[in-house]
Amino acid sequence: MKKIHEKKYILGIETSCDDTAIAIVDSERKILSNIVINQNNYHKEYGGIVPEIAARAHLTFIQTALEKSLKKSKKSINDIDLICATAGPGLIGGLIIGTTFAKTLSWSLKKPYVAVNHLEGHALTARLDSNIPYPYLLLLVSGGHTQLIVVKKCGVYERISTTLDDAVGETFDKGAKMLELSFPGGPEIENCGKKGNEQAFKLPRPMIKSSNPNFSFSGLKTAFSKLVSKTDIKNNKNDLAASFEKAITDCIIDRTRLGIKLFRKMSLKSEKTRLVVAGGVASNSKIRQELKELTTNENIDFYAPPLNLCTDNGAMIAWAGFERFKKYGPSNLNFKPKPRWPLDPEAFKNNPTMKRIGKKGIKA
Ligand code: KG4
Ligand code: ZN
Predict the structure, then answer these.
(1) Is-above-0.90 flag for pTM?
(2) Residue 334: which domain range?
(3) What is the 140 CA–ligand 1 centroid distance (Å)?
(4) Which residues surround ligand 2, an ion (CB under 5 A)?
(5) Does residue 259 have its Cβ closer than 6 Å to ligand 1?
(6) 2, 198, 202, 263: most buried, per Cβ within 10 A?
(7) Per-residue model confidence as pLDDT tens digits over 26-40
(8) Per the domain annotation, does 107 fall within a domain?
(9) Any atom of ligand 1 within 6 Å of the Cβ of 12
């Protein structure tokens, strides 16, 4: 490894879901390349991600993603100082492909390897893009997760809340499927919703005003399914999408308002309060706008990453891996990918409804 003050080049590999993504980032926060090969066409006809298809597609795309990333950054593989890959949580097939690819590079190039938690990648994006200081409250809204987490330092997290059932991105995807829109559903709902009236249909807002800080979306999903089944979709698609998007947004805003209150109680009086949003759903403009209004009213700082850093990408994995490497050193090449890997493994102890420890471990 180069001397501490010398600029380093970090490779970030992301294969935990349906994007094969490889980026090169330098230690001064510059993103030299950020290649994302999405598999949307492979999964479209199923209306969701098929794990086996995703794994095979990662295998097809991963070498191309690396070559494109090197070419775009004008670097050779020998310029890379650190190799980082998502090792969980996520779909095991993709995780095995990405981490094995990274370990092989690490072994052959004699460069250190870091196994990165995908959620830590989303959590630290704000530091890559804008050098946001610790601590901050993170609203993580993605296809698989909906959580409010206090980000204290790299590797030190305290989860305030999570979803009791469906994740918000999953809710968007399922709602889109009901409206016969394509996959992924979030951007589709957003596009239709822009042309519709958000007051057109009445829908429930689960957990709203509850003192339990968790999220829940299954009741909304069921109510939407019933509404869609008795409505002429063709003539009401935009109004249905707008009403659904608004109901989801209201739930997120209400839960975040409570999260801010709880975070304030945990913080020192002298500390500035900051809210950071991350994950694919953070690219939704209605949600971004309403979060901005909420934080203005609450008089706290707000940071939302650019759209290409909200959805899954390799740059966030490279940066989280670099921060982790500086603090904890390299990972062992024997590190096994983990389909379940919570950022705050203690969180479930405080919440009896969250004790979902299956064969794969604690749910994230
Ligand atoms: O973070 P991400 O790329 O992958 C996971 O880690 O899950 O998030 C993907 C999710 C999908 O459910 C997708 O529908 C949702 O993010 N999403 C959106 C938007 N763009 C992506 N949801 C709402 N509005 C959007 N504009
Ligand atoms: Zn993600």
Answers:
(1) yes
(2) 9-125+309-354
(3) 11
(4) 142, 312
(5) no
(6) 263
(7) 999 999 999 999 988
(8) yes
(9) no
